[in-house]
């Protein structure tokens, strides 16, 4: 029941099942999000996996992050999927042949995609480091070495996003594809996507693998996929270059969630730079975080709605849609008190509620099953909980923690959940659901 007390037996059981999912999804180098639906390495999934592995196997947590950053491009971008070369082209669509990425860093060509995902990784590295002491002196020593290896790579990732992806020129990173947001078919992209051609012929040439293993009503539509493929082609055929994006690419959007994680990453880098004895760099990261927070406030806040909305850089318009990503600036300690209060109130309001669905329950596009258009996801709720804690909403944060623990204990480690009855949707035995449960239980 949604109000059953969270008791020690429940926690012990959930801990065991969560650790079991992480074990089952471990490939030897990283954690797959799902054995059936996503058989390769995904960027922000790996960061969440590392946060869970920090409790049960810190050596794996570092390996997870290392294997992802070993596939970083020379320009600093961290690819959104790193393909397992042992698995055939057909295991996931679009596979490596469609992306046709040039060889780099001595890696075989077609080893990754050319898109990115939300920069969760500096925060993950910091979290794994923070928990090292619980595993003894050797773990602490390894953690320092790993932080030293990761730090310049994390900085390069931030520079790619902050410089090359500042297509709007206002100090925020743009995404060039809904897949980059991590919230693929969120109604937040509907307006910007309306002007992206949907060439349905593209789907005749390829086969969607997701529909072999998932319910069609729980996934993005064929029209969405036609647009997704067209956008990949446009970016790919431009050599994955970021020059002049706003003029030549059909989807260039500033997302409040993505940019909140960009600022959060700067704050994590400030901590990491501190540990590495680099106070000047630590100060610079804190300044960057303040600058990004100011730009989010300036560009994405709508005083009429009292909420953060995604901005279409090409049209200059903010979408009216209220996505859960609009609640994530709550993670920013520099967010002013009035806006933080407005977000904390919105999170508890009938539009959302805790745990928060992926989109406004009262909004015109709400769909209780279709992926990021309504269902509850554990990862964004985990981020929201951090935000509630940052702004001193301890009771709400605790209520949310317990609700998430009950949800997963009762329904299983699903990819997402029905926002009314809590039933599991998408893929079972899902990596980040399990990983974040460990953190919620710790
Ligand atoms: C496309 C792996 C990923 C998550 C995303 C989620 C989904 C992929 C897909 O799965 O996206 O990247 O095929 O639908 O939307 O957040 O990282 O779990």
TrEMBL record:
Keyword Signal set for record: no
Similarity section: Belongs to the glycosyl hydrolase 63 family.
Positions of the Mannosylglycerate hydrolase MGH1-like glycoside hydrolase domain: 38-433
Pfam families per UniProt: MGH1-like_GH
Listed GO MF terms: hydrolase activity, acting on glycosyl bonds
InterPro entries on file: 6-hairpin_glycosidase_sf, 6hp_glycosidase-like_sf, Glycoside_hydrolase_63, MGH1-like_GH
Species this protein is from: Actinoplanes subglobosus
Domain of life of the source: Bacteria
Protein name from the UniProt record: Trehalase family glycosidase
Keyword annotations from UniProtKB, A to Z: Glycosidase, Hydrolase
Higher taxonomy: Bacteria, Bacillati, Actinomycetota, Actinomycetes, Micromonosporales
Key word Transport present: no
């Amino acid at each position: 029941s949604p109000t059953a007390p969270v008791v020690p037996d429940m926690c012990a059981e959930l801990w065991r099942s969560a650790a079991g999912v992480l074990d089952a999804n471990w490939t030897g180098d990283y954690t797959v999000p799902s054995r059936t639906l996503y058989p390769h390495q995904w960027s922000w999934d790996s960061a969440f996996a590392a946060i869970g592995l920090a409790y049960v196997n810190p050596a794996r947590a570092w390996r997870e992050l290392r294997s992802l950053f070993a596939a970083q491009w020379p320009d600093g971008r961290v690819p959104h999927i790193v393909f397992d070369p042992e698995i055939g082209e057909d295991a996931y669509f679009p596979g490596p042949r469609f992306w046709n990425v040039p060889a780099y860093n001595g890696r075989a060509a077609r080893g990754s995609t050319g898109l990115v995902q939300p920069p969760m990784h500096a925060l993950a590295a910091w979290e794994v480091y923070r928990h090292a002491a619980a595993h003894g002196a050797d773990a602490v020593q390894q953690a320092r070495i790993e932080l030293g290896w990761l730090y310049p790579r994390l900085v390069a990732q931030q520079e790619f996003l902050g410089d090359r992806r500042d297509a709007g020129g206002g100090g925020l990173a743009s995404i060039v594809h809904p897949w980059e947001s991590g919230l693929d078919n969120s109604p937040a992209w509907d307006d910007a996507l309306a002007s992206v051609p949907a060439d349905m012929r593209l789907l005749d040439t390829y086969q969607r693998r997701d529909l072999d293993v998932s319910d069609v009503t729980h996934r993005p539509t064929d029209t969405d996929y036609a647009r997704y493929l067209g956008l990949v082609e446009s970016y790919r055929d431009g050599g994955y270059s970021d020059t002049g994006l706003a003029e030549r690419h059909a989807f260039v959007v500033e997302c409040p969630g993505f940019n909140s994680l960009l600022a959060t990453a700067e704050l994590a880098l400030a901590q990491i730079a501190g540990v590495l004895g680099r106070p000047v760099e630590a100060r610079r990261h804190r300044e960057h975080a303040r600058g990004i927070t100011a730009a989010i406030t300036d560009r994405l806040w709508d005083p009429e709605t009292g909420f953060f909305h995604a901005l279409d850089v090409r049209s200059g318009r903010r979408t009216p849609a209220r996505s859960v990503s609009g609640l994530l600036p709550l993670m920013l300690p520099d967010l002013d008190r009035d806006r933080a209060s407005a977000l904390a109130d919105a999170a508890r309001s009938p539009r959302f509620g805790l745990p928060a669905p992926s989109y406004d329950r009262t909004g015109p596009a709400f769909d209780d099953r279709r992926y990021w258009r309504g269902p509850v996801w554990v990862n964004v709720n985990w981020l929201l909980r951090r935000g509630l804690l940052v702004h001193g909403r301890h009771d709400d944060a605790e209520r949310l923690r317990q609700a998430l623990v009950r949800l997963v204990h009762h329904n299983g480690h699903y990819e997402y959940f029905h926002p009314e009855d809590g039933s599991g949707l998408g893929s079972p035995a899902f990596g980040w659901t399990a990983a974040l449960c460990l953190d919620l239980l710790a």
